[in-house]
Amino acid sequence: MSTREISKLLFTTVYPLYVQKAERKNRTKEEVDTIICWLTGYSRAQLNHHTAVIIDFQRFFDQAPAIHPNSSQIKGVVCGIRVEDIQDPITQKIRYLDKLIDELAKGRPMDKILRQ
């Protein structure tokens, strides 16, 4: 998927898939929300707003209050590509989020997911 295509995906559509993936592995929506808020700086209320309106990933990340400074510690492979090597900033942030949700689904403890 090209950079342009991935940034135009609707966060509103993908968010429930993140929650479903977590819940299938006995994790919770609250944990998904914690991860998203940690990465983006959104409050729970702001996140709830963004899950209720139609917004693509480009705008979702452009409007984010502050990407967490420890996000650069997110390493690994998503869809066969190392997230730390992605050049496009929006694509990298989307893949950071994908990687964090993958870690949650694999049972990794929250303190490690949140790079604490």
Would you kindly provide a written description of the structure presented here, covering whatever features stand out?
It is a single chain. The mean pLDDT is 94. The chain has helices spanning 3-8, 11-24, 29-40, 44-52, 57-62, 89-105, 110-113; strands at 77-78, 81-82. It has 116 residues and is mostly helical. The chain is built from seven helices and two strands. Strand 1 and strand 2 (81-82) form a beta hairpin. It has one domain (3-107): uncharacterized protein sp1917 domain (Helicase, Ruva Protein, domain 3, Orthogonal Bundle), CATH 1.10.8.290.
CATH architecture annotation name: Orthogonal Bundle
Number of strands: 2
Q: If strands are numbered along the chain, what order do they take across the biggest sheet?
A: 1-2
Return Rg in Å: 13 Å
The residue-averaged pLDDT reads 94
Count up the domains.
Answer: 1
Classify the helix fraction into a percent range. 55-70%
CATH topology: Helicase, Ruva Protein, domain 3
Order of helices and strands: HHHHHEEHH
- Structure class: mainly alpha
**Content of β-strand:** under 5%
Q: CATH-wise, what's the superfamily?
A: uncharacterized protein sp1917 domain
List the helices and strands and how they pair.
Layout: H1 3-8, H2 11-24, H3 29-40, H4 44-52, H5 57-62, E1 77-78, E2 81-82, H6 89-105, H7 110-113
Which keywords apply here?
single chain, 116 residues, mainly alpha, Helicase, Ruva Protein, domain 3, two-stranded antiparallel sheet, 7 helices, globular, UCP033199
